[in-house]
Amino acid sequence: MGRQGFDTAFVTGQPLRVLMVEDVPADAELCLRALRLHGYSVCADIVSTREDFLLRVSQAKYDVVLSELSLPDWNAVDVLEQLEKLQQDVPFILVTRGLDEELATRLIDDGADDYIFKDRLNRLPLAVRRVLRERRLLDERHAAAIERERLIRKLEETLSEVKRINGLLPVCVTCKRILSEKGFWSRMEAYIERHSDARVSPSLCPECAARHYPETFN
User: Which of 19, 39, 89, 103 is most buried, by the most CB atoms less than 10 A from its CB?
Assistant: First the structure.
């Protein structure tokens, strides 16, 4: 997808499922309000404890996690570690009042996608759009890589079969089934369709038609 496709991907009313890790309800509401004003249709769960966080991520799928830096008894580093342990590959944005450069670097290294200061929440919707766009691109590349591997395996199987056919192709003299490279006997029609783009169209040659339906030709 080109740049224009990414720029026009957002539409007003676009659904956004948010997990908000925040212990100050007013701050959480300000973040969600910024997203709604931008045009997102936000559905959010707000948690402040590790237990509630683990419960939510085990029960629902989120588009983005927004987290305060420091919470009672745990922090954003713990949130990132829990997401990794649970293999939850979801975009993560830190939303906090202050952050030194060393800690910011550590959080980015640990997997954070971005960080926003609470006195600049006007940047939050654009940061969300960016991380979602980047995640979509990664997903598309991953899907393309899987499809490429599938096609390579298919090509290798086809080439192997072509080499075998150029040598000796076992065909049953009675039922005309063909022995595949994996040792299975297949109907000729299925064999042809499996190893080529051709599709078999059932037909009768004139000789067979005359032999099986002689009344038609008398």
Answer: 19
Number of structural domains found in the chain: 2
Do residues 178 and 188 lie in contact, with contact meaning Cβ atoms separated by under 8 Å?
yes
Does 160 fall in a domain? Answer: no
Give yes or no for a contact between 73 and 23, defined as CB atoms under 8 angstroms apart. Answer: no
Q: What is the DSSP string of 107-143?
A: HHHHT--EEEEGGGGGGHHHHHHHHHHHHHHHHHHHH
Residues 82 and 125 in one domain: yes
Query: What distance in Å separates the CA atoms of residue 213 and residue 65, rounded to the nearest whole number?
Result: 72
pLDDT in tens, 162-204: 666 666 677 787 887 877 777 788 887 777 777 666 677 777 6
Tell me: do 197 and 101 sit in the same domain. no
Which among 101, 106, 31, 98 is positioned nearest to 69, based on CA atoms? 98
173 DSSP 8-state letter: T
Tell me: do 96 and 198 sit in the same domain: no
Tell me how far apart the alpha carbons of residues 107 and 116 are, in angstroms, rounded to a whole number: 13
